[in-house]
Amino acid sequence: MFVVMNAAASQAEANAVKSLILAEGLVPYDHVGAERLVIAVVGEIGARKPVLISRLEALGGVESVTPISRPFKLTSREFHPEDTVVRILDAVVGDGSLTVMAGPCSIESREQLRETVEGVVAAGATIIRGGAFKPRTSPYSFQGLGVEGLRYLAEERERTGLPVITEVMEPNQVDIVAEYADILQIGTRNMQNYSLLTAVGRVTRPVMLKRGYGATIEEWLMAAEYIVSSGNPNVILCERGIRTFETYTRNTLDLAAVPLLHHLTHLPVIVDPSHATGKRWLIKPMSLAGVAAGADGIMVEVHPRPDEALSDGEQSITIAQFAELMVSLRAIHAQVGDLHGDPVLPNAVLKVGGTGKL
Amino acid sequence: MFVVMNAAASQAEANAVKSLILAEGLVPYDHVGAERLVIAVVGEIGARKPVLISRLEALGGVESVTPISRPFKLTSREFHPEDTVVRILDAVVGDGSLTVMAGPCSIESREQLRETVEGVVAAGATIIRGGAFKPRTSPYSFQGLGVEGLRYLAEERERTGLPVITEVMEPNQVDIVAEYADILQIGTRNMQNYSLLTAVGRVTRPVMLKRGYGATIEEWLMAAEYIVSSGNPNVILCERGIRTFETYTRNTLDLAAVPLLHHLTHLPVIVDPSHATGKRWLIKPMSLAGVAAGADGIMVEVHPRPDEALSDGEQSITIAQFAELMVSLRAIHAQVGDLHGDPVLPNAVLKVGGTGKL
Amino acid sequence: MFVVMNAAASQAEANAVKSLILAEGLVPYDHVGAERLVIAVVGEIGARKPVLISRLEALGGVESVTPISRPFKLTSREFHPEDTVVRILDAVVGDGSLTVMAGPCSIESREQLRETVEGVVAAGATIIRGGAFKPRTSPYSFQGLGVEGLRYLAEERERTGLPVITEVMEPNQVDIVAEYADILQIGTRNMQNYSLLTAVGRVTRPVMLKRGYGATIEEWLMAAEYIVSSGNPNVILCERGIRTFETYTRNTLDLAAVPLLHHLTHLPVIVDPSHATGKRWLIKPMSLAGVAAGADGIMVEVHPRPDEALSDGEQSITIAQFAELMVSLRAIHAQVGDLHGDPVLPNAVLKVGGTGKL
Amino acid sequence: MFVVMNAAASQAEANAVKSLILAEGLVPYDHVGAERLVIAVVGEIGARKPVLISRLEALGGVESVTPISRPFKLTSREFHPEDTVVRILDAVVGDGSLTVMAGPCSIESREQLRETVEGVVAAGATIIRGGAFKPRTSPYSFQGLGVEGLRYLAEERERTGLPVITEVMEPNQVDIVAEYADILQIGTRNMQNYSLLTAVGRVTRPVMLKRGYGATIEEWLMAAEYIVSSGNPNVILCERGIRTFETYTRNTLDLAAVPLLHHLTHLPVIVDPSHATGKRWLIKPMSLAGVAAGADGIMVEVHPRPDEALSDGEQSITIAQFAELMVSLRAIHAQVGDLHGDPVLPNAVLKVGGTGKL
């Protein structure tokens, strides 16, 4: 449930509400909207719900108390109606601008990373991606350059001024990755690695959470809830395809997830067409489709010479193809800004203020 | 396999090739390209392939003989490199223009159909849809108005001059539906109803073949192959979502199928966001995404008062929403024409002439 | 809903109930239980339900009126608590005995069928299977011997005295297939071919309905409802695997469907491990598992020389392997009879009489 | 690839083989068969394969060098033809005996655990299960008693003499869980948590690896390969259902995985019908089916009063139901021992000695 304070409520009144919540063994979370404060109550409430609502409503400064029917709370539009906008260095994700994360699947060498970054930055990428720790299905495949790769990434940030994103695979790696990278990525296989979710919830870096290839949208939002409820509100979601019976593509890109997420949650949504399709020549049409569906941006794998790549070469595009993709993406993005209005919500939601996709 | 005749080949030489094919118990199919004739050889060739190739190559007027590795032959880009363009009355599907099929899920009455058609035509629909025979999961649900519905549809064609499309459910219905409708639709549950596919392959009306909700892209093209090999080359494919574990949407719209199909086949591709999502407010973003992915058009369910609809009301949009959708669709479509170039083909294909998406 | 007449109700009282149902535009179906008559009311009842219940309860001879919450009515355990037992010649399906349907995927010749039948009958098969009309993904694959195959099947029935089962693919074939075969099979691709379901619902031959490879259990039962509500109560269900992301097996055999169906419906359930797995060496363990899960029997493809088969050879077992399978099946079946008691039903159901799996 | 030493090969000859492997940057793994030693070579071999085979074949004591075509090496039947038998205290898994792991989903209190253990041990359970660290979809659900739960588990081992199994969720927990528990369980959400797999690969406790709900059999074996290649050969696989479009059951239990795994790998296979079905009354038939399919045992959730359980009550059976299940399981298990012979292998495999399912 969440407690909406009235516009004139004092800090002391807010504290009294939180004290009551804590006394019940539950946890209060603030959301400071444009006009007023909302306090979410999380934890297992169970049968005491009606009594608790009555007690909260009786406190000073409380305008209303509303149950949240969905299992996700802090990530829901009901609690936080305005879009979350994530700012990293000069990049902004979720404000209506077009985010493009580009770079190699794996960092193979300082030279390969530099050549790729020069190409994608010249073409207009806004965030640099590159894998240093690689989760591989086989224990015998190339596992990434590790910390050496992180150092090369950090060098590129220094050179270009653009933020860098890379994957973190276990709780013990969070500190070292957070030292070098600007955005921490959680991969599809780790979407329900709760120890890792909690660990990245405790750092100040934004987190990009990829959808598990077998996960429902609700489970994905519950995984984001682990991060946000651990203290980190800056979560970006990344749709990368789900597993189905179709075998022509590696996965099935679920683009309906994009408008669905904009409806259910305030978090930004990125589309990854590289892993979703596994085919280089599908990346452009699916990127355009993702942006047309309302995505806040895309993440795409680029390699100077894809056929020589140590991982996922068949789904990487060349620097020239990336430059051509950028031209097309900008043309579509220029149209969609005005086209996607407020999604029609099935039931009225609290309008705490702010603007955005709601 | 297919036999490419050289540009100067005579009719007699072509006949000699076909005679040899027939003598082997196989069937020849012509494809008259811009510059030369190609003859497909279909049937179970098996172990005699090398000998048969030698014998065909030895005939006069034969330029080359090429095996087709894919199981679909007549529907493949290899055999027929130029796009198939389907013309019905003044409507054209597959020539780069934007096709929009709109109308009610079920025809409920002459008035309901008329009101809907007036609205969608005013907003720019190019083809009128309406269900007369309805396949329903339950034998106790409304099964459609039948022939009475067909008559109302035909009236709307007379009034508007636009072609009408409606579903045919069994071989015995093909003649009566073809009498009233301009395009015959095969529904998702009947995608592998081979008797029905063969029956619609014998009429002159174009056929729109929806993807089975559990069918792979290859099976879908094999179903189209049944229609084309029965004599009807005018097949339009319609992606309408596949069944996955995700339950927020009714089905998962597989938009990667759009560029994949443009790569594998010469047939036009339509996207149906109504059945794919089952949610009214997802229709607009998914329509835009479909067109951005390169679809030749969309099919959408419209109802004057969706909440009163006898079937699928929750996924129908109002006439006003349809008008707004058309504005957005045109904006995206105006961009994509130039963006989708020739898909990069994995292996060289026969260039018989013509232009198009190839 | 259904109306339970009391044990002493007269025929005139039953007729009065049916007249009222018919007057409402609905259809009454009888179920004569061991002690009393139950009349199901099918059709779209909608908002008039409470009034209709009151009016029916007020009639003479009516003991109670109960709504059926599930969308399937005549096929539900609520309406028909005792197991349906299907008798064909001397074979009985659904009475606790072990049904084994065996024979070739396709009938290739009189000799091939005879050789197979002699082998499987000697080993203990109770019903002979063989395909005459074959639904094939490709229009260029062997489509079966047609009526010639039916004649060979009928010869085997004459020779062995055992019933024969074969597939029917379209409404126009129903009469000819019913003339030669004892059980009509509806294949997986036609599970929602409603014209065909209605057509086989009008003949007196039992029907075996295979599950659609992309169909839910509820849709499967609704398909059976089409047959039963058209007048044919003798429906056998056949689980043959569903389509999933796993690619080692052709399909994923959903054995939990067996006890689920025994819980939801009174119809017998057969398991087909041949199509489910697509691998010869998985047939034995999956047959044993199916019988252990409570299936009423199995259907298995047998070929004298599987490597020479015209269709599905890789999933056919030899006659010797079939004989060995029968020994194992009997050992497991001898155990399970006592092990499967009454499934625990989530809510009390009407006990009209009879015994069985309920 | 793997190197088969001849029966008379000396230790020095084996060492020479391993030195050459190490000098190439690859890793040798021993498998001591009944008659001779086999050394697997793992790592990225790539283009040097033919040269490496020649060089190895030229060494003294080498009988043959064979490539392994499958991506899993140490877990494959090719490398290790005899069944792996895991021994923990007096329990044995994989030797043909019936393993039954039973206990509560979550340990809720010392009393609840004790009451359950007394019941299941009296009925014949061979291993005690209980959750102390619980992976929960929601961060607000009961997360388990943690170390306190581990202590209660250890008490039950002392009292009963039976081994205990419990889940470990992150690398940092491995030591503490290994201190209290006899078998470490990796849950479905962590099947591709490679840091965790490597961590449990470094301890001496056996590991039970559950299949990811969206994972293919090949990915599952690759996950097991991570554990075995890290040094721990005692891995037990547990099939617990995969995610499909069917919604009546929580997951779809893929029982064909049981004989497939016995064919592909030497590791024992357990079936978990509780999580697979999510319905109490499906546990018995699916347990029987699992054992009939050849599983080495089952894992089942038992609770004294399922309706009061803090987690997964709807899929837990009572102690009385468990006792009845044991009777049925033993009856089926007594039959299957003789029924499952050697699976027919598609290609000849190295017979190093030993007996078993191969």
Summary?
By secondary structure, chain A is of the alpha/beta class. The first copy, chain A, contains 11 helices and 14 strands.
Can you tell me about this structure?
The structure is a homotetramer of 358-residue chains. The first copy, chain A, has helices spanning 11-23, 49-57, 110-123, 147-160, 174-180, 194-200, 217-229, 257-264, 273-277, 283-292, 319-339, and strands spanning 2-5, 27-32, 37-42, 62-66, 86-88, 91-93, 99-103, 127-129, 164-167, 183-186, 207-210, 235-239, 269-271, 297-301. Chain A has 358 residues and is α/β, with parallel strands linked by helices. The longest helix of chain A is centred in the C-terminal third of the chain and has 21 residues, at 319-339. Chain A has two domains: 2-66, 2-Layer Sandwich (Alpha-Beta Plaits), CATH 3.30.70.1140; 86-339, Aldolase class I (TIM Barrel), CATH 3.20.20.70. Chain A is built from eleven helices and 14 strands. Chains A and B meet through helix 8, helix 10 and helix 11 of A and helix 8, helix 10 and helix 11 of B.
